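Thread: zinc ion complex, take 2
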Amino acid sequence: MKKLLFTVLFLPLFSFGQTALRTDIDQSATQIESKVIEWRRDFHKYPELGNQEVRTAKIVADHLRSLGMEVTEGVAVTGVVGVLKGGKPGPMVGLRADMDALPVTERNDLPFKSVNTAVYNGQETGVMHACGHDTHVAILMGVAEVLAGMKDQLSGSVKFIFQPAEEGVYDVDMAGAELMVKEGVMEDVDAIFGLHIWSQIEAGKIGYRSGPFMAAVDNFKITVKGTQAHGAAPWSSVDPIVTSSQIVMGLQTILSRNVNITAAPAVVTVGAIKGGIRNNIIPEEVDMIGTIRTFGDEQQELVHRRIREVATHISESAGATADVRIGIGYPATINPPDLTSRVLISLEAAAGKENIIAMDPITGAEDFSFFQREKPGFFFFLGGMKPGGDPVTTPSHHTPDFFIDESGLIIGVKSLSYLVVDYLEMKK
Ligand SMILES: [Zn+2]
Ligand SMILES: [Zn+2]
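Output below.
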C-alpha cells in the first residue's frame, strides 16, 4: 500500500521538463568539472581557519557576482550569501557549503599542498583543509554556475549559503551555522540541502541516512569537592579521587542501563580527569571533562539528566559535592524521512542507484543541524576515497594525511543541482 502511494505521488517528478533540465545539468557539469577541481586545489593550497575565511569568501563573492547574483558578504563574520532568481515564480531552496579549515599540518605530497600557517590556541600550526571543506566550496561554486546558466527555466530561487566556522572557533561559543540562522539567513528559505565529502566512501558513491544521521554534541564538566587530608590518614578525608572514580564507572551505566540502544546509540566519554599534586596528599577537588553524543531531544534530555543524577548522588553518598555543568553544542543532524524518500530519487539519478549507500548513524556532529531546525533540510555524504581503497586504512578526516580523490566532485555538482531542480519542479 505504501509503495503504491509512493509511486502515485512521485510519478509527476519524471516530467519532460525535468528530464530536459537534468540533461542540461549533465552537460554543464561535465564542462565545469576541471574548473571545480582547479578551484578546489586553490582553496586547498590557501586554507583559512574559522571566521578568517577572507580570501575564500572574496573568491566566492566575486564568482557569484559574475553570475549576476545579488550577493551579501560578511554574514556571520565571513560568510557569503548569493541569491539566484529563477525565471518563474516558486519557492526558495537553500544550498550550503562550509568554508573553514583546521589547525593541522598537511603531510600529503601534493602540488597544491597547503602553504598556510596560523596561531591557534597560542600555538603556531599549519592550516589544512583536513575535513574537505575546500571541496564543498568548489562544488557549490560549480552548482551556482550550472544553475545560473539555466535560471530562466527555474521555477523558484536558489540561495547559495557559504558558511564560515563549521568546526567551531577557539574561544567563540557560536558555530557558523548558528550565527547565520540568528542573522536571518533561513527566513525566506523553504528547504535546504547540503553535503559533506567523506574520505571513507569511494568516489562516485553517495551515503545517506533517513532520520537521525549525525549526533548532537554537548560537553560536560564535573567538579567533585571533598575534604583534603594526609594521604596516610584517608579516614579523615572525603576523598574526591575515589568518588570521581566511582562517578566515571557510574556514567558507564547510563548507556548500558538507561538508554534504549536499540532505538539510537549514544556516547558519554570522560576525556580528562585532573586532581591532586603529590603522592601523600588527598586533594580537596577533582575536575572531569567529557563529551556527550546523542540522537534526538528526548535521548539528549535523558542522558543529561542521568549525568547530573549519577554525579550528584554518588558524591552525596561519599559526603562530597558535585558541581555539574553541561555545555550545549550542535544539535543532531536529522534527515526528515518524508523529505529523504523524495530526494532519494534525485540522488539515484545523479550517481546511479547502485552507488547510493544507506549508512549507519555517525557519532560525529555537523552544524548543518542548525539550518535543519529552521526548515526541512537534507544532508548527505559524497564519496572522496580512491575507488577500491580500504576505508579502515584510509586516513580519516582531521588528520595530516587526509586525502580526497577528486573524481567524485562532479557527482556533488550534479546531485545538488538535481536536488534543486527536482524540488522546484515538484512544488510547481
Ligand atoms: Zn570536520
Ligand atoms: Zn567537516
